[in-house]
Each structure stands twice: as structure tokens, then as C-alpha cells.
Specification:
Order of helices and strands of chain A: HEEHHEHHHEEHEEEEEEEEHEEHE
Function (chain A): Flavin transferase that catalyzes the transfer of the FMN moiety of FAD and its covalent binding to the hydroxyl group of a threonine residue in a target flavoprotein.
Distance between the termini of chain B: 65 Å
Strand order of the largest sheet of chain A: 1-2-6-7-10-13-14-15
Oligomer: heterodimer
Number of helices of chain B: 2
Radius of gyration of chain A: 26 Å
Cofactor (chain A): Mg(2+); Mn(2+)
CATH superfamily of the largest domain in chain A: ApbE-like domains
Transmembrane segments (chain A): 7-28
Number of strands of chain B: 8
Number of helices of chain A: 9
Structural class of chain A: alpha+beta
CATH topology of the largest domain in chain B: mini-chromosome maintenance (MCM) complex, domain 2
Number of domains of chain B: 2
Strand order of the largest sheet of chain B: 2-1-7-6
CATH class of the largest domain in chain A: Alpha Beta
Family (chain A): Belongs to the ApbE family.
Strand content of chain A: 15-25%
Largest sheet of chain B: 4 strands, antiparallel
Binding site for Mg(2+) (chain A): 190, 304, 308
Chain lengths: 355, 121
């Protein structure tokens, strides 16, 4: 017995050594992970603003007060830009209760905050040849994609409102807006999230944050990279699937990722499908072979404005528009679920498709 | 004796692999379901214990959270659009189900972090 025990001993020792080594390895590799991020785990907060869910994550700061400050900032912008909040500047402008300015019958004094986003909005009106049009409010006010009894407007009502829609009939001069027709109004829904995301990024940078993720209801804007130097991974949602399913994942460094798609908000009634991207020339949703467009750009306001514009332009013209712009890339998803990338995409953005 | 050596080596190897599997399995089972209402943590549940819970959301709205077979799901809700009910059940860390009208977020939190930092939609 004692003889055989002795023979076992080296093997047992070897076994113990193996286990010890393995344990050490696990502990060391865990420690290494922590060494990579010496400032600790990222902090994240979510809030319900802008009729959607806002999530802000800081990777290089433990100061929750900075996120609270960002949420407050978003709330301030909502109080100006909201179409439905009865106290907002946009609501008052649309209902003619804003302070009148000299000029036409429908001239109003507006704040710098509103004037700035209007200037951007008119720029995208021109760039998209009127397909992106913030004066679409008389039409969008008739549609309701959200509430229990979703509303599809009467054809007559839409046709009555159509002549009121034309961004060229909105004159912006410094802090004065003039509507050339009675009954005009503005809807900033297709640009506000992008614009606000840029302001949040500015605020975070001012606070000394160099690594963060701003997500305004799927309108994504990265601040820098992860603390370890890796790019952020941003997924593109799979149309008509769960919020956590994606068609592709991209490496994103300090850029904005914004999608427009027919799967976001829609009404299904009998055999008809009505999505929320409305054609200002018909009052009804755009009909083309696109399901979604995703724009990767430096500024989120550009991503927001361009995603709607490109959706409206369709695959061919939309691709042309993006390819004419510097440092801007796009993925178009057609109704056969095929992904179309703009020229230069793969040279500049690392992307992995998920099958 | 050589045969016994082999057996012993086998036993040690089995224990080592067993330990590794055990550690990895435990990681997954350690996932937590976090329920947030209006941005604040409201309740937490282990993902590996079946449970049904009625969440009282904002504006008096309710959502029925069902945890079953390692998945969290919203099966009923008072909200008009029921987008939260339509969303598929979740089980991976970082995945979420959101109900905008009731300001409810269901979130999985655990060791196996999702690779994604954000999803654009």
C-alpha cells in the first residue's frame, strides 16, 4: 500500500499543481480586466423624455451629477421643441400665440434655441429638394401612430392641409419667423433628437467627459472611444424584430448613428400599412422599396436630417446624396432585407453583418 | 500501476473541467432582472427563479412581468400600444424591454455583458 501511495504522490502533486495554476490563471486574467479600466465600471442612467427613452452612459467618470445635468438639458430643449406640450415655444408658434414681430401677418419672435434648429431644418429642406420639410405639421397633426385608437386621417382633410406644407413659405430672419400662409406650422420630430444629441455631447465634453454613449431613443452618438482605446460597438436594429435583434454591428469612434425606418411607428389596418415617414407632397407615407436607412456621420443633426431625406429620396438618389457628402456613410435596407452600403463605407467603418 | 495513473489523471482532468463548467454555468445563472420605473430601480429579481409580478408604472399603468425558464417577458400591459408585450422575451445581459407609456424598463444585468454598447433604431 505504502509503495503504491508513493507512486501516486507525484501524480497527485502534479494534479494539484495543475489546479493551482489554473486558478491562478483565472485570477490573473480577471485582474488584468480590471487593470484595463482603472476608473471602474461605466455608469448609466435612463429617463423618459422626448416621447422616448433616453440612456446616457459615462465610461470615464463616476459622477452621476453629470448625467443628471444632461437629462435636465434635454428636458429644457423638449420644453422648446415639443409639438404637443402646450407650453412649448413650437406649440405656441403653431397656434399663433407667440409674441408677434414686425413683418407679415404671421410673423413671430423666436428664441435663439428655436432659430438655430430652424436654420438647420431649412438647410435639409433645400438639400433634399423639399422631401424633408418641417412645415409638415398640418399633416402630421392629423396622424396618430401612438394612441390606442390610432388615427388615419380623412383624405379630404389631408388634401385641405397640403397647400400649407412648403418650407419655402417659412421665412427665417434672425429671431423672426414668418409664415406666408395662415394655418402653417412646424414639426421638428425628424431633426430634434439629432440636434439635441449634439448639444448633449458638447455639454459632456465641457464637463471633461471623453468617453460616453448618448442614446436618444435609438438616435446614437458616441463621445470618443472606450477608455481602453477600443471603438464602441453599435448595432443596427433588425426591422420588425425585437429591440435587441440586429442586422449588423459597427465599430464607432466619436460618430453618430441614426436610422429612419418604416418599422418604428406604423398602423396596420386591414390590408393597409401606414408608417410614420410622411410624404409632404401627398400627406401619406412614402412608398418605395426601402425599409430603413442608417446614417453614420460626425454630427447627429446631420444623421437625423439625412436619414429622413434619404428615406424619402429612395435607394438610388439617397445613395447619391450621401456619396456627395464628406465623411458621411449610409446603409440602406431594401424590402428584400438586402443591405446596401455607400461608396467608401468599408474603408472607413468596420462592420459585421449578423445573419 | 500505469493504468491507475491514467485513472487518476482522468479523475483530476474531470474535476478540473467540471470546475470550469460549474464556474461558467454559475456566471449565467447569476443574471438579474432589473425593473426600473421612470429611471429609478423599482425591483430586482433573479433570472433563474420563475416568478410573476405586476409592475405599477407611471400614470397608474401596469405591466405584467413573467420570469420563466431563464427568460424575462412582459405578457400583459395596460398601455395602449402594447409595444412592450410584442417585444420578444429576453435573457442576455444588456437586453431590455421598454414600455414608454408606463415608463417601465426591464433590463437583464449579469456577468456576460452584451457586446453592444448601443443599438440604433
Amino acid at each position: 500500500m505504502s509503495k503504491s501511495k508513493k507512486k501516486y504522490l507525484p501524480v497527485v502533486l502534479l494534479g494539484i499543481a495543475c489546479i493551482a495554476l489554473l486558478t491562478t490563471y483565472i485570477i490573473i486574467s480577471n485582474n488584468k480586466k480590471e487593470d484595463k479600466e482603472p476608473i471602474g465600471e461605466p455608469i448609466q442612467k435612463s429617463s423618459f423624455l422626448l416621447n422616448t427613452i433616453i440612456t446616457i452612459t459615462l465610461y470615464d467618470s463616476q459622477d452621476e451629477g453629470i448625467i443628471d445635468g444632461a437629462m435636465e438639458l434635454i428636458g429644457e430643449y423638449e420644453k422648446v421643441y415639443s409639438r404637443t406640450m402646450e407650453t412649448s415655444e413650437v406649440y405656441k408658434l403653431n397656434h399663433g400665440t407667440l409674441e408677434k414681430a414686425k413683418g407679415g401677418n404671421y410673423s413671430y419672435k423666436i428664441s435663439d434655441t428655436l432659430a438655430d434648429i430652424l436654420e438647420k431644418s431649412l438647410y435639409y429642406g433645400n438639400l433634399s429638394e423639399g422631401r424633408f420639410d418641417i412645415t409638415i405639421e398640418p399633416i402630421t397633426a392629423q396622424w396618430d401612430f401612438i394612441s390606442e385608437n390610432a388615427v388615419i386621417p380623412e383624405k379630404n382633410d389631408l388634401e385641405t392641409a397640403l397647400p400649407l406644407v412648403d418650407y419655402k413659405n417659412l421665412i427665417l430672419r434672425d429671431n423672426t419667423v414668418t409664415f406666408l400662409k395662415e394655418g402653417m406650422g412646424i414639426d421638428l420630430g425628424a431633426i430634434a433628437k439629432g440636434y439635441i444629441a449634439d448639444r448633449v455631447k458638447e455639454y459632456l465634453l465641457e464637463q471633461g467627459v471623453k468617453s460616453a454613449m448618448i442614446n436618444l431613443g435609438g438616435n446614437v452618438l458616441a463621445v470618443g472611444k472606450k477608455p481602453g482605446g477600443e471603438a464602441f460597438k453599435v448595432g443596427i436594429q433588425k426591422p420588425f424584430a425585437g429591440r435587441n435583434e440586429i442586422v449588423a454591428a459597427m465599430d464607432i469612434d466619436g460618430k453618430s448613428v441614426v436610422s429612419s425606418g418604416i418599422y418604428e411607428r406604423y398602423i396596420k389596418k386591414e390590408d393597409n400599412f401606414y408608417h410614420h415617414i410622411i410624404d409632404p407632397s401627398t400627406g401619406y407615407p412614402y412608398k418605395n422599396d426601402l425599409i430603413a436607412v442608417t446614417i453614420i456621420s460626425n454630427k447627429s443633426v446631420d444623421g437625423d436630417g439625412l436619414s429622413t431625406s434619404c428615406f424619402a429620396l429612395g435607394l438610388e438618389k439617397g445613395m447619391e446624396l450621401i456619396e456627395s457628402l464628406e465623411d458621411t456613410y449610409a446603409i440602406f435596407i431594401t424590402d428584400d432585407y438586402e443591405l446596401h452600403y455607400t461608396k467608401g463605407f468599408f474603408d472607413n467603418i468596420k462592420v459585421t453583418e449578423v445573419k | 500501476m500505469k493504468k491507475n495513473d491514467l485513472i487518476l489523471a482522468g479523475v483530476i482532468l474531470t474535476i478540473a473541467i467540471g470546475a470550469l463548467i460549474f464556474v461558467n454555468l454559475n456566471k449565467k445563472e447569476g443574471n438579474t432582472v432589473i425593473v426600473k420605473v421612470d429611471g429609478e430601480v423599482y425591483k430586482e429579481f433573479p433570472l433563474d427563479v420563475d416568478a410573476t409580478y405586476e409592475i405599477k408604472g407611471a400614470n397608474g399603468g401596469t405591466n405584467l412581468l413573467v420570469i420563466k425558464d431563464g427568460y424575462a417577458d412582459i405578457t400583459e400591459a395596460s398601455c395602449p400600444d402594447e409595444v412592450c408585450v410584442v417585444q420578444p422575451k429576453i435573457n442576455k445581459s444588456g437586453e431590455t424591454i421598454v414600455c414608454l407609456p408606463n415608463k417601465v424598463i426591464i433590463e437583464i444585468n449579469g456577468e456576460n455583458q452584451s457586446e453592444l454598447d448601443a443599438i440604433a433604431n
